[in-house]
Protein backbone atom coordinates (compact mmCIF):
# COMPACT_ATOMS: atom_id res chain seq x y z
CA UNK A 1 0.00 0.00 0.00
CA UNK A 2 1.47 3.35 -1.00
CA UNK A 3 1.38 6.12 1.56
CA UNK A 4 -1.36 8.59 0.77
CA UNK A 5 1.08 11.42 0.26
CA UNK A 6 2.87 9.50 -2.47
CA UNK A 7 -0.44 8.75 -4.24
CA UNK A 8 -1.18 12.46 -4.26
CA UNK A 9 2.22 13.08 -5.73
CA UNK A 10 1.65 10.45 -8.43
CA UNK A 11 -1.70 11.96 -9.34
CA UNK A 12 -0.12 15.40 -9.54
CA UNK A 13 2.58 14.03 -11.82
CA UNK A 14 -0.09 12.41 -13.98
CA UNK A 15 -1.98 15.66 -14.37
CA UNK A 16 1.25 17.36 -15.37
CA UNK A 17 2.09 14.71 -17.93
CA UNK A 18 -1.30 14.94 -19.61
CA UNK A 19 -1.15 18.56 -20.60
CA UNK A 20 -4.73 18.78 -21.79
CA UNK A 21 -7.90 17.22 -20.47
CA UNK A 22 -11.13 15.84 -21.81
CA UNK A 23 -14.21 16.93 -19.90
CA UNK A 24 -17.05 14.55 -19.21
CA UNK A 25 -19.81 14.68 -21.86
CA UNK A 26 -17.97 17.13 -24.04
CA UNK A 27 -16.34 16.90 -27.44
CA UNK A 28 -12.86 18.16 -28.20
CA UNK A 29 -12.14 19.16 -31.81
CA UNK A 30 -8.49 18.67 -32.68
CA UNK A 31 -6.10 19.05 -35.55
CA UNK A 32 -2.87 17.10 -35.99
CA UNK A 33 -0.93 20.33 -36.51
CA UNK A 34 -2.17 21.81 -33.32
CA UNK A 35 -1.86 19.12 -30.63
CA UNK A 36 -0.45 19.54 -27.10
CA UNK A 37 3.02 18.15 -26.55
CA UNK A 38 3.09 15.36 -25.54
CA UNK A 39 -0.23 14.53 -27.30
CA UNK A 40 -1.90 13.15 -24.17
CA UNK A 41 -5.18 14.02 -22.52
CA UNK A 42 -6.34 13.26 -19.00
CA UNK A 43 -9.70 11.51 -18.88
CA UNK A 44 -12.50 12.13 -16.38
CA UNK A 45 -13.50 9.46 -13.85
CA UNK A 46 -16.70 7.51 -14.49
CA UNK A 47 -18.21 4.11 -13.67
CA UNK A 48 -18.60 3.40 -17.38
CA UNK A 49 -16.79 5.89 -19.56
CA UNK A 50 -17.31 5.68 -23.33
CA UNK A 51 -14.56 7.33 -25.35
CA UNK A 52 -15.15 7.95 -29.03
CA UNK A 53 -12.80 9.10 -31.77
CA UNK A 54 -14.28 10.51 -34.98
CA UNK A 55 -12.23 11.44 -38.05
CA UNK A 56 -13.32 14.68 -39.67
CA UNK A 57 -10.94 14.38 -42.63
CA UNK A 58 -9.65 11.39 -44.57
CA UNK A 59 -5.92 11.50 -43.76
CA UNK A 60 -5.08 9.27 -40.84
CA UNK A 61 -3.08 6.32 -42.02
CA UNK A 62 -0.69 5.89 -39.12
CA UNK A 63 -2.53 7.61 -36.28
CA UNK A 64 -3.44 5.36 -33.34
CA UNK A 65 -5.25 6.06 -30.10
CA UNK A 66 -4.38 4.46 -26.75
CA UNK A 67 -6.07 4.80 -23.38
CA UNK A 68 -5.39 3.60 -19.89
CA UNK A 69 -7.51 3.66 -16.79
CA UNK A 70 -4.52 2.96 -14.59
CA UNK A 71 -3.04 5.78 -12.55
CA UNK A 72 0.44 4.32 -12.88
CA UNK A 73 0.73 4.73 -16.67
CA UNK A 74 1.13 8.27 -17.92
CA UNK A 75 1.72 7.68 -21.63
CA UNK A 76 -0.19 4.62 -22.89
CA UNK A 77 1.13 3.45 -26.25
CA UNK A 78 1.77 0.50 -28.57
CA UNK A 79 4.07 -1.14 -26.00
CA UNK A 80 0.97 -1.98 -23.96
CA UNK A 81 1.07 -2.56 -20.23
CA UNK A 82 -1.50 -3.25 -17.56
CA UNK A 83 -4.83 -1.65 -18.41
CA UNK A 84 -3.58 -0.07 -21.63
CA UNK A 85 -6.03 -0.41 -24.50
CA UNK A 86 -6.08 0.67 -28.12
CA UNK A 87 -9.16 2.34 -29.53
CA UNK A 88 -9.57 0.70 -32.90
CA UNK A 89 -10.91 3.03 -35.54
CA UNK A 90 -13.10 1.58 -38.24
CA UNK A 91 -14.39 3.75 -41.13
CA UNK A 92 -13.30 6.81 -39.20
CA UNK A 93 -15.05 5.93 -35.93
CA UNK A 94 -13.55 4.39 -32.79
CA UNK A 95 -15.48 3.52 -29.62
CA UNK A 96 -14.14 2.23 -26.32
CA UNK A 97 -15.92 1.67 -22.98
CA UNK A 98 -14.48 0.71 -19.60
CA UNK A 99 -14.47 1.59 -15.89
CA UNK A 100 -12.39 4.69 -15.25
CA UNK A 101 -12.80 4.88 -11.48
CA UNK A 102 -9.76 7.15 -11.07
CA UNK A 103 -9.86 8.74 -14.49
CA UNK A 104 -7.10 7.91 -16.97
CA UNK A 105 -5.09 9.07 -19.93
CA UNK A 106 -5.61 9.05 -23.69
CA UNK A 107 -2.52 9.30 -25.90
CA UNK A 108 -2.30 9.86 -29.65
CA UNK A 109 0.44 7.94 -31.39
CA UNK A 110 1.99 8.43 -34.82
CA UNK A 111 0.43 11.80 -35.49
CA UNK A 112 0.77 12.65 -39.15
CA UNK A 113 2.31 15.93 -40.11
CA UNK A 114 -0.49 16.48 -42.59
CA UNK A 115 -3.55 18.48 -41.85
CA UNK A 116 -5.78 15.89 -40.17
CA UNK A 117 -8.74 16.89 -38.05
CA UNK A 118 -10.68 14.70 -35.66
CA UNK A 119 -12.84 14.79 -32.55
CA UNK A 120 -12.65 13.00 -29.23
CA UNK A 121 -15.61 12.60 -26.90
CA UNK A 122 -15.86 11.11 -23.41
CA UNK A 123 -19.20 10.34 -21.87
CA UNK A 124 -20.77 8.45 -19.00
CA UNK A 125 -24.02 7.94 -20.92
CA UNK A 126 -23.12 6.03 -24.06
CA UNK A 127 -21.11 7.06 -27.12
CA UNK A 128 -21.14 10.72 -28.14
CA UNK A 129 -20.19 9.86 -31.73
CA UNK A 130 -22.20 7.09 -33.30
CA UNK A 131 -23.55 5.63 -36.52
CA UNK A 132 -27.20 5.17 -35.60
CA UNK A 133 -28.89 1.85 -36.32
CA UNK A 134 -32.05 3.60 -37.56
CA UNK A 135 -32.09 4.91 -41.12
CA UNK A 136 -33.71 8.03 -42.49
CA UNK A 137 -37.07 7.43 -44.17
CA UNK A 138 -37.92 8.08 -47.80
CA UNK A 139 -41.41 9.44 -48.42
CA UNK A 140 -41.28 9.43 -52.21
CA UNK A 141 -39.71 11.08 -55.24
CA UNK A 142 -40.77 12.75 -58.48
CA UNK A 143 -38.44 13.35 -61.41
CA UNK A 144 -36.72 16.22 -59.60
CA UNK A 145 -38.03 16.25 -56.01
CA UNK A 146 -37.69 14.01 -52.97
CA UNK A 147 -39.61 13.89 -49.71
CA UNK A 148 -37.38 12.65 -46.90
CA UNK A 149 -37.73 12.20 -43.15
CA UNK A 150 -35.30 12.21 -40.26
CA UNK A 151 -35.35 9.57 -37.54
CA UNK A 152 -38.39 9.87 -35.29
CA UNK A 153 -38.35 11.45 -31.85
CA UNK A 154 -40.99 12.23 -29.17
CA UNK A 155 -43.52 9.47 -30.01
CA UNK A 156 -47.09 10.52 -29.26
CA UNK A 157 -48.84 9.04 -26.25
CA UNK A 158 -52.41 7.93 -26.83
CA UNK A 159 -54.81 8.14 -23.92
CA UNK A 160 -57.79 5.99 -24.72
CA UNK A 161 -61.15 7.47 -23.73
CA UNK A 162 -63.07 5.54 -21.08
CA UNK A 163 -66.64 4.42 -20.57
CA UNK A 164 -69.21 6.01 -20.15
CA UNK A 165 -67.73 9.02 -21.95
CA UNK A 166 -66.03 7.07 -24.74
CA UNK A 167 -65.55 9.91 -27.20
CA UNK A 168 -63.28 9.24 -30.17
CA UNK A 169 -61.64 12.12 -32.02
CA UNK A 170 -62.95 13.04 -35.46
CA UNK A 171 -60.61 13.33 -38.46
CA UNK A 172 -57.85 15.84 -37.62
CA UNK A 173 -58.34 18.95 -39.63
CA UNK A 174 -55.21 20.66 -38.40
CA UNK A 175 -51.89 19.10 -37.44
CA UNK A 176 -50.94 18.78 -33.76
CA UNK A 177 -48.52 21.41 -32.52
CA UNK A 178 -44.91 20.35 -32.80
CA UNK A 179 -42.71 19.83 -29.72
CA UNK A 180 -40.77 22.84 -28.42
CA UNK A 181 -37.40 21.38 -29.11
CA UNK A 182 -36.09 18.83 -31.57
CA UNK A 183 -32.71 17.30 -32.37
CA UNK A 184 -30.76 19.36 -34.89
CA UNK A 185 -30.98 17.26 -38.05
CA UNK A 186 -28.98 18.14 -41.16
CA UNK A 187 -29.66 16.43 -44.49
CA UNK A 188 -26.88 15.47 -46.87
CA UNK A 189 -27.40 13.93 -50.30
CA UNK A 190 -25.16 13.26 -53.29
CA UNK A 191 -25.50 11.21 -56.49
CA UNK A 192 -24.62 7.58 -55.68
CA UNK A 193 -22.58 7.15 -58.87
CA UNK A 194 -19.78 9.37 -57.55
CA UNK A 195 -19.37 6.99 -54.55
CA UNK A 196 -17.85 9.85 -52.59
CA UNK A 197 -19.90 9.78 -49.40
CA UNK A 198 -19.72 6.07 -48.65
CA UNK A 199 -15.95 6.00 -49.09
CA UNK A 200 -15.37 8.78 -46.53
CA UNK A 201 -15.05 8.26 -42.76
CA UNK A 202 -18.62 7.54 -41.61
CA UNK A 203 -18.80 10.31 -39.04
CA UNK A 204 -20.99 13.35 -38.49
CA UNK A 205 -18.15 15.88 -38.67
CA UNK A 206 -16.83 14.41 -41.94
CA UNK A 207 -20.27 14.45 -43.58
CA UNK A 208 -21.02 17.94 -42.27
CA UNK A 209 -18.14 19.23 -44.39
CA UNK A 210 -19.57 17.78 -47.63
CA UNK A 211 -21.63 19.66 -50.20
CA UNK A 212 -25.21 18.47 -50.66
CA UNK A 213 -27.08 18.17 -53.98
CA UNK A 214 -30.45 19.73 -54.68
CA UNK A 215 -32.00 22.47 -52.62
CA UNK A 216 -34.23 22.23 -49.59
CA UNK A 217 -37.53 23.80 -50.63
CA UNK A 218 -39.22 23.19 -47.28
CA UNK A 219 -38.15 21.84 -43.90
CA UNK A 220 -40.73 21.29 -41.18
CA UNK A 221 -41.66 18.96 -38.33
CA UNK A 222 -44.31 16.37 -39.10
CA UNK A 223 -45.98 13.69 -36.98
CA UNK A 224 -46.22 11.08 -39.74
CA UNK A 225 -47.06 8.02 -37.61
CA UNK A 226 -46.90 6.49 -34.11
CA UNK A 227 -43.10 6.40 -34.29
CA UNK A 228 -43.02 10.10 -33.50
CA UNK A 229 -42.15 13.48 -34.91
CA UNK A 230 -39.68 13.74 -37.74
CA UNK A 231 -38.06 16.55 -39.63
CA UNK A 232 -39.56 16.46 -43.11
CA UNK A 233 -37.59 17.82 -46.04
CA UNK A 234 -38.88 18.58 -49.50
CA UNK A 235 -35.91 18.64 -51.83
CA UNK A 236 -36.06 20.19 -55.27
CA UNK A 237 -33.62 20.52 -58.13
CA UNK A 238 -32.64 16.85 -58.37
CA UNK A 239 -31.91 15.03 -61.65
CA UNK A 240 -34.34 12.48 -63.12
CA UNK A 241 -33.65 8.74 -62.89
CA UNK A 242 -30.69 9.17 -60.61
CA UNK A 243 -29.71 7.09 -57.60
CA UNK A 244 -28.85 9.36 -54.62
CA UNK A 245 -27.10 8.55 -51.36
CA UNK A 246 -28.49 10.23 -48.23
CA UNK A 247 -27.23 10.75 -44.72
CA UNK A 248 -28.72 12.62 -41.80
CA UNK A 249 -26.45 14.27 -39.27
CA UNK A 250 -27.92 14.57 -35.79
CA UNK A 251 -26.66 17.30 -33.47
CA UNK A 252 -23.31 17.30 -35.28
CA UNK A 253 -22.37 14.05 -33.50
CA UNK A 254 -24.40 11.14 -34.79
CA UNK A 255 -24.91 9.86 -38.28
CA UNK A 256 -27.78 7.97 -39.85
CA UNK A 257 -27.35 6.38 -43.27
CA UNK A 258 -26.59 5.64 -45.98
CA UNK A 259 -30.08 5.47 -47.42
CA UNK A 260 -30.37 5.26 -51.21
CA UNK A 261 -33.25 6.54 -53.30
CA UNK A 262 -33.95 6.89 -56.99
CA UNK A 263 -35.70 9.81 -58.66
CA UNK A 264 -38.38 9.06 -61.25
CA UNK A 265 -37.95 9.44 -65.01
CA UNK A 266 -38.64 12.76 -66.69
CA UNK A 267 -41.97 11.31 -67.94
CA UNK A 268 -43.32 10.79 -64.41
CA UNK A 269 -46.27 13.11 -64.02
CA UNK A 270 -47.66 12.70 -60.53
CA UNK A 271 -47.04 15.47 -57.95
CA UNK A 272 -46.25 14.83 -54.29
CA UNK A 273 -48.83 15.15 -51.52
CA UNK A 274 -47.91 16.05 -47.94
CA UNK A 275 -49.15 18.06 -44.93
CA UNK A 276 -52.56 16.33 -44.84
CA UNK A 277 -53.50 16.31 -41.12
CA UNK A 278 -56.25 13.65 -41.55
CA UNK A 279 -53.84 11.38 -43.48
CA UNK A 280 -50.43 12.25 -42.02
CA UNK A 281 -48.83 9.19 -43.66
CA UNK A 282 -49.77 10.29 -47.17
CA UNK A 283 -46.38 11.68 -48.15
CA UNK A 284 -46.08 10.36 -51.68
CA UNK A 285 -46.92 11.05 -55.33
CA UNK A 286 -50.64 10.97 -56.17
CA UNK A 287 -52.40 10.85 -59.58
CA UNK A 288 -53.57 14.44 -59.96
CA UNK A 289 -52.58 17.13 -62.46
CA UNK A 290 -49.73 19.38 -61.32
CA UNK A 291 -51.01 21.90 -58.80
CA UNK A 292 -50.79 25.38 -60.27
CA UNK A 293 -51.17 27.26 -57.02
CA UNK A 294 -48.31 25.90 -54.96
CA UNK A 295 -44.78 27.25 -54.49
CA UNK A 296 -43.57 23.75 -53.71
CA UNK A 297 -45.49 22.08 -56.59
CA UNK A 298 -47.11 19.71 -54.12
CA UNK A 299 -50.62 19.05 -52.88
CA UNK A 300 -51.26 19.93 -49.25
CA UNK A 301 -54.41 20.61 -47.23
CA UNK A 302 -54.74 24.08 -48.77
CA UNK A 303 -54.95 23.03 -52.43
CA UNK A 304 -56.16 19.42 -52.43
CA UNK A 305 -59.53 19.32 -54.23
CA UNK A 306 -62.22 19.48 -51.55
CA UNK A 307 -64.14 16.69 -53.31
CA UNK A 308 -61.36 14.35 -52.17
CA UNK A 309 -60.92 15.62 -48.63
CA UNK A 310 -64.66 16.05 -47.95
CA UNK A 311 -65.52 12.49 -49.00
CA UNK A 312 -62.71 11.15 -46.90
CA UNK A 313 -63.59 13.05 -43.76
CA UNK A 314 -67.26 12.04 -44.21
CA UNK A 315 -66.16 8.37 -44.26
CA UNK A 316 -64.10 8.95 -41.14
CA UNK A 317 -67.00 10.54 -39.33
CA UNK A 318 -69.51 7.89 -40.39
CA UNK A 319 -67.15 5.12 -39.43
CA UNK A 320 -66.59 6.61 -35.99
CA UNK A 321 -70.34 6.96 -35.47
CA UNK A 322 -70.94 3.32 -36.39
CA UNK A 323 -68.03 2.09 -34.30
CA UNK A 324 -69.24 3.83 -31.17
CA UNK A 325 -72.71 2.25 -31.42
CA UNK A 326 -70.85 -0.58 -29.69
CA UNK A 327 -70.40 0.01 -25.97
CA UNK A 328 -66.73 0.89 -26.38
CA UNK A 329 -64.77 0.67 -23.15
CA UNK A 330 -67.50 -1.41 -21.46
CA UNK A 331 -68.00 -4.42 -23.71
CA UNK A 332 -64.62 -5.66 -24.85
CA UNK A 333 -64.62 -7.40 -28.21
CA UNK A 334 -60.97 -8.35 -27.86
CA UNK A 335 -58.47 -8.70 -25.04
CA UNK A 336 -55.90 -6.81 -27.16
CA UNK A 337 -57.76 -4.19 -29.15
CA UNK A 338 -59.93 -1.22 -28.27
CA UNK A 339 -62.28 0.94 -30.32
CA UNK A 340 -59.56 3.60 -30.38
CA UNK A 341 -57.10 1.07 -31.89
CA UNK A 342 -59.72 0.10 -34.45
CA UNK A 343 -60.31 3.71 -35.39
CA UNK A 344 -56.60 4.41 -35.85
CA UNK A 345 -56.07 1.26 -37.96
CA UNK A 346 -59.14 1.99 -40.07
CA UNK A 347 -58.12 5.62 -40.69
CA UNK A 348 -54.74 4.44 -41.81
CA UNK A 349 -56.18 1.85 -44.16
CA UNK A 350 -58.69 4.35 -45.54
CA UNK A 351 -55.88 6.83 -46.26
CA UNK A 352 -53.84 4.18 -48.06
CA UNK A 353 -56.73 3.18 -50.34
CA UNK A 354 -58.18 6.68 -50.80
CA UNK A 355 -54.93 8.21 -51.97
CA UNK A 356 -53.69 6.04 -54.84
CA UNK A 357 -49.92 6.17 -55.06
CA UNK A 358 -48.12 6.64 -58.34
CA UNK A 359 -45.08 4.47 -58.94
CA UNK A 360 -42.60 3.59 -61.60
CA UNK A 361 -40.35 0.67 -62.38
CA UNK A 362 -36.89 1.59 -61.20
CA UNK A 363 -34.24 1.41 -63.93
CA UNK A 364 -32.23 -1.20 -62.03
CA UNK A 365 -35.14 -3.47 -61.15
CA UNK A 366 -34.91 -5.62 -64.26
CA UNK A 367 -31.28 -6.36 -63.56
CA UNK A 368 -32.09 -7.13 -59.93
CA UNK A 369 -34.57 -9.77 -61.02
CA UNK A 370 -32.56 -11.48 -63.69
CA UNK A 371 -29.16 -11.28 -62.01
CA UNK A 372 -28.19 -14.06 -59.67
CA UNK A 373 -26.55 -11.47 -57.42
CA UNK A 374 -29.94 -9.93 -56.58
CA UNK A 375 -30.44 -9.52 -52.83
CA UNK A 376 -31.39 -13.00 -51.68
CA UNK A 377 -34.33 -13.06 -49.31
CA UNK A 378 -34.66 -15.22 -46.21
CA UNK A 379 -36.19 -17.88 -48.41
CA UNK A 380 -33.32 -17.74 -50.89
CA UNK A 381 -35.55 -16.43 -53.69
CA UNK A 382 -34.58 -13.36 -55.69
CA UNK A 383 -36.17 -9.99 -54.89
CA UNK A 384 -39.71 -9.59 -56.20
CA UNK A 385 -41.06 -6.84 -58.43
CA UNK A 386 -43.01 -4.02 -56.80
CA UNK A 387 -46.82 -4.12 -56.62
CA UNK A 388 -47.21 -1.82 -59.61
CA UNK A 389 -50.41 -1.83 -61.63
CA UNK A 390 -50.67 -0.04 -64.97
CA UNK A 391 -53.51 2.48 -65.38
CA UNK A 392 -54.58 3.70 -68.79
CA UNK A 393 -56.30 7.02 -69.39
CA UNK A 394 -59.58 5.11 -69.63
CA UNK A 395 -59.11 3.10 -66.38
CA UNK A 396 -61.57 4.22 -63.72
CA UNK A 397 -59.55 5.96 -60.99
CA UNK A 398 -59.14 3.75 -57.92
CA UNK A 399 -60.81 6.47 -55.87
CA UNK A 400 -63.77 7.96 -57.79
CA UNK A 401 -63.16 11.36 -56.19
CA UNK A 402 -59.97 11.53 -58.28
CA UNK A 403 -60.28 12.77 -61.86
CA UNK A 404 -58.94 10.61 -64.70
CA UNK A 405 -55.34 11.38 -65.65
CA UNK A 406 -54.44 12.57 -69.13
CA UNK A 407 -51.51 10.18 -69.37
CA UNK A 408 -51.12 6.52 -68.46
CA UNK A 409 -49.40 5.89 -65.14
CA UNK A 410 -48.84 3.05 -62.67
CA UNK A 411 -50.19 2.78 -59.15
CA UNK A 412 -48.20 1.21 -56.37
CA UNK A 413 -50.80 -0.88 -54.52
CA UNK A 414 -51.24 -0.58 -50.74
CA UNK A 415 -49.56 -3.29 -48.67
CA UNK A 416 -52.25 -5.79 -47.64
CA UNK A 417 -50.97 -5.64 -44.05
CA UNK A 418 -52.62 -2.21 -43.69
CA UNK A 419 -55.95 -3.87 -44.42
CA UNK A 420 -55.26 -6.86 -42.17
CA UNK A 421 -54.29 -4.54 -39.31
CA UNK A 422 -57.71 -2.86 -39.51
CA UNK A 423 -59.42 -6.26 -39.81
CA UNK A 424 -57.64 -7.46 -36.64
CA UNK A 425 -58.25 -4.25 -34.68
CA UNK A 426 -61.96 -3.81 -35.40
CA UNK A 427 -65.03 -5.56 -33.96
CA UNK A 428 -66.69 -8.18 -36.18
CA UNK A 429 -70.03 -6.42 -36.43
CA UNK A 430 -68.44 -3.77 -38.68
CA UNK A 431 -68.00 -6.48 -41.33
CA UNK A 432 -64.53 -5.25 -42.28
CA UNK A 433 -62.72 -7.96 -44.25
CA UNK A 434 -59.73 -8.11 -46.53
CA UNK A 435 -59.49 -10.13 -49.74
CA UNK A 436 -57.65 -13.44 -49.51
CA UNK A 437 -54.28 -14.02 -51.09
CA UNK A 438 -55.38 -17.26 -52.71
CA UNK A 439 -58.18 -15.48 -54.53
CA UNK A 440 -57.56 -12.08 -56.04
CA UNK A 441 -56.04 -9.98 -53.26
CA UNK A 442 -53.11 -9.08 -55.52
CA UNK A 443 -55.46 -7.12 -57.80
CA UNK A 444 -56.00 -4.48 -55.15
CA UNK A 445 -53.13 -4.95 -52.69
CA UNK A 446 -49.44 -5.70 -52.56
CA UNK A 447 -49.39 -9.28 -51.20
CA UNK A 448 -46.46 -11.24 -49.84
CA UNK A 449 -44.03 -8.35 -49.27
CA UNK A 450 -44.19 -7.79 -45.50
CA UNK A 451 -46.00 -10.95 -44.39
CA UNK A 452 -46.18 -14.10 -46.43
CA UNK A 453 -49.22 -14.82 -48.57
CA UNK A 454 -50.71 -17.28 -46.06
CA UNK A 455 -52.50 -15.97 -42.95
CA UNK A 456 -49.95 -17.29 -40.43
CA UNK A 457 -46.82 -15.99 -42.14
CA UNK A 458 -46.20 -12.79 -40.23
CA UNK A 459 -42.93 -11.17 -41.24
CA UNK A 460 -42.22 -13.93 -43.76
CA UNK A 461 -42.80 -11.89 -46.89
CA UNK A 462 -40.17 -11.20 -49.52
CA UNK A 463 -38.38 -8.82 -48.82
CA UNK A 464 -40.13 -8.57 -45.41
CA UNK A 465 -40.68 -4.81 -45.56
CA UNK A 466 -42.56 -2.20 -47.56
CA UNK A 467 -39.39 -0.42 -48.65
CA UNK A 468 -35.69 -0.95 -48.21
CA UNK A 469 -32.44 0.93 -47.68
CA UNK A 470 -31.51 0.62 -51.37
CA UNK A 471 -34.34 2.69 -52.77
CA UNK A 472 -36.79 -0.10 -53.59
CA UNK A 473 -40.41 0.46 -52.59
CA UNK A 474 -42.44 -2.74 -52.82
CA UNK A 475 -45.93 -1.65 -51.77
CA UNK A 476 -47.57 1.41 -50.24
CA UNK A 477 -47.52 1.55 -46.46
CA UNK A 478 -48.81 4.79 -44.94
C1 LIG B 1 -9.78 -0.54 -15.75
O1 LIG B 1 -10.50 -1.26 -16.76
C2 LIG B 1 -10.59 -2.66 -16.51
C3 LIG B 1 -11.29 -3.30 -17.68
O2 LIG B 1 -12.53 -2.67 -17.92
C4 LIG B 1 -11.33 -2.89 -15.19
O3 LIG B 1 -11.37 -4.26 -14.91
C5 LIG B 1 -10.63 -2.13 -14.07
O4 LIG B 1 -11.40 -2.23 -12.87
C6 LIG B 1 -10.48 -0.67 -14.41
N1 LIG B 1 -9.70 0.00 -13.39
C7 LIG B 1 -10.11 1.13 -12.81
C8 LIG B 1 -9.18 1.72 -11.79
O5 LIG B 1 -11.15 1.67 -13.09
C1 LIG C 1 -20.85 0.87 -20.90
O1 LIG C 1 -21.49 1.71 -21.87
C2 LIG C 1 -21.52 1.16 -23.18
C3 LIG C 1 -22.10 2.19 -24.12
O2 LIG C 1 -23.35 2.65 -23.66
C4 LIG C 1 -22.33 -0.13 -23.18
O3 LIG C 1 -22.32 -0.71 -24.47
C5 LIG C 1 -21.70 -1.10 -22.18
O4 LIG C 1 -22.49 -2.26 -22.10
C6 LIG C 1 -21.58 -0.47 -20.80
N1 LIG C 1 -20.85 -1.36 -19.94
C7 LIG C 1 -21.27 -1.68 -18.74
C8 LIG C 1 -20.40 -2.61 -17.98
O5 LIG C 1 -22.31 -1.22 -18.27
C1 LIG D 1 -66.22 13.52 -22.74
O1 LIG D 1 -64.90 13.49 -23.28
C2 LIG D 1 -64.63 14.55 -24.21
C3 LIG D 1 -63.27 14.32 -24.81
O2 LIG D 1 -62.38 13.85 -23.88
C4 LIG D 1 -64.74 15.88 -23.48
O3 LIG D 1 -64.51 16.94 -24.39
C5 LIG D 1 -66.15 16.00 -22.90
O4 LIG D 1 -66.22 17.19 -22.13
C6 LIG D 1 -66.48 14.81 -21.99
N1 LIG D 1 -67.88 14.87 -21.62
C7 LIG D 1 -68.29 14.62 -20.39
C8 LIG D 1 -69.76 14.70 -20.16
O5 LIG D 1 -67.50 14.35 -19.48
C1 LIG E 1 -27.78 22.90 -36.38
O1 LIG E 1 -26.62 22.43 -37.07
C2 LIG E 1 -26.21 23.29 -38.13
C3 LIG E 1 -25.09 22.63 -38.88
O2 LIG E 1 -24.00 22.41 -38.07
C4 LIG E 1 -25.82 24.65 -37.53
O3 LIG E 1 -25.43 25.53 -38.58
C5 LIG E 1 -27.02 25.23 -36.79
O4 LIG E 1 -26.66 26.43 -36.15
C6 LIG E 1 -27.54 24.26 -35.75
N1 LIG E 1 -28.79 24.77 -35.22
C7 LIG E 1 -29.07 24.78 -33.93
C8 LIG E 1 -30.40 25.31 -33.56
O5 LIG E 1 -28.29 24.35 -33.09
C1 LIG F 1 -43.47 24.24 -45.53
O1 LIG F 1 -44.66 24.04 -46.27
C2 LIG F 1 -45.82 24.06 -45.46
C3 LIG F 1 -47.01 23.66 -46.33
O2 LIG F 1 -47.00 24.32 -47.55
C4 LIG F 1 -45.98 25.46 -44.88
O3 LIG F 1 -47.12 25.48 -44.03
C5 LIG F 1 -44.74 25.79 -44.06
O4 LIG F 1 -44.83 27.12 -43.60
C6 LIG F 1 -43.51 25.63 -44.91
N1 LIG F 1 -42.35 25.80 -44.06
C7 LIG F 1 -41.30 26.51 -44.44
C8 LIG F 1 -40.19 26.61 -43.45
O5 LIG F 1 -41.26 27.05 -45.53
C1 LIG G 1 -72.46 9.09 -43.95
O1 LIG G 1 -73.69 8.82 -43.30
C2 LIG G 1 -74.77 9.63 -43.78
C3 LIG G 1 -75.98 9.35 -42.91
O2 LIG G 1 -76.10 8.00 -42.62
C4 LIG G 1 -75.02 9.27 -45.24
O3 LIG G 1 -76.08 10.08 -45.75
C5 LIG G 1 -73.74 9.55 -46.03
O4 LIG G 1 -73.92 9.13 -47.38
C6 LIG G 1 -72.59 8.79 -45.44
N1 LIG G 1 -71.38 9.23 -46.11
C7 LIG G 1 -70.47 8.40 -46.53
C8 LIG G 1 -69.28 9.02 -47.22
O5 LIG G 1 -70.56 7.21 -46.36
C1 LIG H 1 -52.13 -12.90 -58.40
O1 LIG H 1 -52.36 -14.09 -57.69
C2 LIG H 1 -52.80 -15.15 -58.52
C3 LIG H 1 -53.23 -16.33 -57.64
O2 LIG H 1 -52.31 -16.55 -56.60
C4 LIG H 1 -51.65 -15.52 -59.49
O3 LIG H 1 -52.03 -16.55 -60.34
C5 LIG H 1 -51.31 -14.26 -60.30
O4 LIG H 1 -50.17 -14.53 -61.13
C6 LIG H 1 -51.00 -13.10 -59.41
N1 LIG H 1 -50.86 -11.91 -60.20
C7 LIG H 1 -49.85 -11.10 -60.06
C8 LIG H 1 -49.86 -9.87 -60.93
O5 LIG H 1 -48.95 -11.30 -59.25
C1 LIG I 1 -28.80 2.58 -55.67
O1 LIG I 1 -27.39 2.40 -55.54
C2 LIG I 1 -27.02 1.43 -54.56
C3 LIG I 1 -25.51 1.46 -54.42
O2 LIG I 1 -24.90 1.26 -55.65
C4 LIG I 1 -27.54 0.06 -54.99
O3 LIG I 1 -27.21 -0.92 -54.04
C5 LIG I 1 -29.06 0.15 -55.10
O4 LIG I 1 -29.57 -1.07 -55.57
C6 LIG I 1 -29.46 1.26 -56.07
N1 LIG I 1 -30.91 1.38 -55.99
C7 LIG I 1 -31.71 1.31 -57.05
C8 LIG I 1 -33.17 1.31 -56.77
O5 LIG I 1 -31.27 1.25 -58.18
Describe the structure in your own words.
By secondary structure, this protein is an alpha+beta fold. It has 2 domains: 19-128, Jelly Rolls; 132-457, no CATH class. It has helices at residues 4-17, 196-199, 204-208, 306-323, 339-354, 365-370, 416-425, and strands spanning 20-21, 26-31, 40-43, 46-55, 64-68, 84-87, 89-90, 93-100, 104-109, 117-123, 130-131, 137-141, 146-149, 185-191, 215-225, 228-236, 243-250, 254-262, 272-273, 298-299, 358-359, 388-391, 409-412. The strands form 6 sheets. It has a 5-stranded mixed sheet, with helices on one face. Helix 4 (306-323) runs antiparallel to helix 5 (339-354) and helix 5 (339-354) runs antiparallel to helix 7. The longest helix has 18 residues, at 306-323. Mean pLDDT is 89; it is low at 5-16 and 365-380. The structure holds 2-acetamido-2-deoxy-beta-D-glucopyranose (8 copies).
The CA-CA distance between the termini, in Å, is 67 Å
Beta content? 25-35%
State the low-pLDDT regions, or none.
5-16, 365-380
Number of helices: 7
Which descriptor suits the 3D outline?
A: elongated
Average per-residue pLDDT, rounded, comes to 89
- Structural class of the secondary structure composition? alpha+beta
Total domain count: 2
Q: From the structure provided, what is the oligomeric state, counting identical versus distinct chains?
A: single chain
Major sheet strand order: 1-3-9-5-6
Written as H for each helix and E for each strand, in order along the chain, the element string is HEEEEEEEEEEEEEEHHEEEEEEHHEHEEH
Number of strands: 23
- What percent of the residues sit in helical stretches (DSSP H or I)? 10-25%
How much is the radius of gyration in Å?
A: 28 Å
Cofactors and ligands? 2-acetamido-2-deoxy-beta-D-glucopyranose
- Give the biggest sheet: 5 strands, mixed
Amino acid sequence: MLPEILLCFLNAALIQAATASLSLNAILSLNSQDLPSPPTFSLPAAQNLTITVAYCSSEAVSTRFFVTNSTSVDDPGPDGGTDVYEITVNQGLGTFSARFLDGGVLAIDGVSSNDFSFEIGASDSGPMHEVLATLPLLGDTTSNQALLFSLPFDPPTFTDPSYPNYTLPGPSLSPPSPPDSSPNFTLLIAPTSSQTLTSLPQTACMMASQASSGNIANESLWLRDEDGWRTQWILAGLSPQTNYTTYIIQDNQKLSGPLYFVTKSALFDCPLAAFLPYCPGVTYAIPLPSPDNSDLSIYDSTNLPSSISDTLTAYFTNFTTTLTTQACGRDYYSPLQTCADCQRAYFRWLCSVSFPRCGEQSPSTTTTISSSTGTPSSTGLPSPTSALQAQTTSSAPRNSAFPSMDTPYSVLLPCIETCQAADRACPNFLGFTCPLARFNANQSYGVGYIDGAEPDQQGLGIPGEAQDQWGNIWCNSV
